[in-house]
Structures are given as C-alpha cells and as structure tokens.
Task: inverse folding
C-alpha cells in the first residue's frame, strides 16, 4: 500500500498513477462507447397522449434492457434533455431528431 499524500492541486492527482496505470486507463476509456454495427433505427417525433408535449422516439433497437439504458443515457447527455426507455424504444424529451440522428450515426447506426 502506498503512503497517503495530501493533494494540493489537480496536477498532483496525475502523479499518483504510474505510467502503465495511466496508459491502461486511457485505453479502457477509449474502448467505451457503443457500436451499432450498421443496424437500422428510426427516429421520429411523437405528441400523442402527452398533452401536446413533444417526445423524440428511437425505434428499432434490438438490445437487452441494460444496453438500451446505456444508449438512452448517452443520448440524454448529448441532447441535454430527459428521457426514458419504454416498451423497447427510447424516449427523449423535446424535438431532438437532428441531434439524436447525428449521435446515432457516430455510434455506427443507420438512421432511416
């Protein structure tokens, strides 16, 4: 166990890791993300049953619930909006069709 050292700045934080630990951490963070493998998804706007409020729907994702939640989290952060996963589709609050389509293309999905 390493002796504890009081940090006085953020640059001190980088000194706590060895170079091999830093490179491993960088490679792990670059591996994160999601690969759509060219699957086709639909992005559409819906207002039915929402008292006039608009919601952007992402349909056609065939993933397990944990992966759907992860994709929803990525899209919500990218759009700066709330949302959820319901009935096998992702709902993002507001008209976010352009942003969501752009992000899904970055994730290697085909937006149709």
Result:
């Amino acid at each position: 166990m390493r002796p504890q050292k009081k940090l006085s700045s953020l640059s001190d934080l980088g000194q706590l890791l060895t170079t091999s630990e830093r490179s491993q951490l960088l490679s792990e963070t670059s591996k994160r993300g999601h690969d759509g493998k060219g699957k086709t998804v639909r992005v559409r706007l819906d207002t039915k049953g929402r008292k006039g409020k608009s919601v952007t729907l992402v349909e056609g994702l065939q993933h397990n619930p944990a992966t759907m939640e992860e994709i929803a989290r990525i899209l919500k952060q990218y759009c700066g909006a709330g949302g959820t996963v319901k009935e096998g589709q992702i709902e993002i609050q507001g008209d976010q069709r352009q942003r969501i389509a752009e992000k899904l293309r970055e994730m290697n999905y085909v937006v149709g």
